[in-house]
Amino acid sequence: MAFQKPPGTQDFLPGAVEKWQFVERVARDICRRFNFREIRTPMFEMTELYKRGVGETTDIVEKEMYTFTDRGDRSLTLRPEGTAGAVRAYVENKLYGEPDLTKLYYIGPMFRYERQQAGRYRQFHQFGVEALGAVDPALDAEVIALGYAFYAEVGLKDVRVEINSVGTPAVRAVFREKLLGFLEPMRDTLCKDCQARMDRNPLRVLDCKTDQHRFAEAPSILDSLDEECRTHFESLKQHLTGMNIPFTVNPRLVRGLDYYTHTAFEYKAEGIGAIDTVGGGGRYNGLVADIGGPDQPGVGLGLGLERTVMLLESQGAELENLHQVEVYLVGLGEAAERETTRLLQGLRMRGIAAERDYQGRKMKAQMKSADRLRVRFTAILGDDELQRGEIALKNMATGEQTFVALDALADAIRGS
Q1: Confidence check: pLDDT of 141 > 90
Q2: Domain named Aminoacyl-transfer RNA synthetases class-II family profile: which ranges (predicted)?
Q3: pTM for the complete prediction?
Q4: Which fold has domain 327-414?
Q5: What share of the chain is helix, strand, coil (3-state, %, to 5)?
Q6: What's the distance, CA 94 to chain centroid?
Q7: Domain 17-167+225-314, what architecture?
């Protein structure tokens, strides 16, 4: 039988994977400039971490986790998101003992058993950041600005920022009663998910795509904010305005995770079907304590890389030649081919991307290979050139050909 990849997964082939490398390179450079440092956590964690950290009433924990029992009879789960594992590492390794703010980022695969649709996979990839140790709303604004800069620098257009305040647990308790008062008269006509959420986590009802149109008159959580939450939210808006980050306030925005407090935000973009959310995040002041650490505040984001790449493709973004072979070496004759091998290694060790033929093809076929690679130069070495200690270097854009000394080949390519 011929094997196929599991449903909801992808093969990233040469020609496509270079786009991913570009996107990841931009993410790493953005983090360097914002002083976030990389963390790499296990691909699976104890299941209880996600139940406690993400929230038992979330769709992630209730429906979507890949959970298994190992040979030590431990319940383990492939990571469905990055924050819980990063915070676990922060606590376990006592990073909270450092005098400065802890600013972390990660890039890697996550796993959720979701219904397949455009831009949504069961193995997907996230770029995330976490900043722990400060309650300053300026830090919330910095995290939002980092994500906005990432989308701008990979070349996406028309990315929108939506923000909201989801308050504190005390604020949400007050809002919960107001919301239930609005929802109860329509309970029997809502979808089954909404009916279940009303009993367990009514705020999640506002996240429903099926019944969203029915909640236009629902109470706004912004009307239930206490003075602390209002002050934090107003300060956030002032910082974003000062940073020239355009945003809109969406009082229906609640996000799908239980650990958020105060700030919640999302990035929106059109072009990948019905789903327009490409990333998001928020503040989570109680999460560190919930998973056994000291009561340290935090704020972070997670951006979906599948959706980022899909948007780049749908918008027709022109990316640089991400896999650029600079020179193709052609050896004509046995002695010239041996010298080509030496030259090839020397060029590569000088940082120049170079290639040659290994299939015994004639010169015409080798030149076609050079064209397919879109090289800047071809370097042709025959027995006569070898005896003179030089090689023919052809500029593929202009057609100009010159002869250069064998030992000066790298300098000639670099200087052009």
Answers
A1: yes
A2: 8-312
A3: 0.88
A4: Rossmann fold (3.40.50)
A5: 45, 20, 35
A6: 26
A7: 2-Layer Sandwich (3.30)
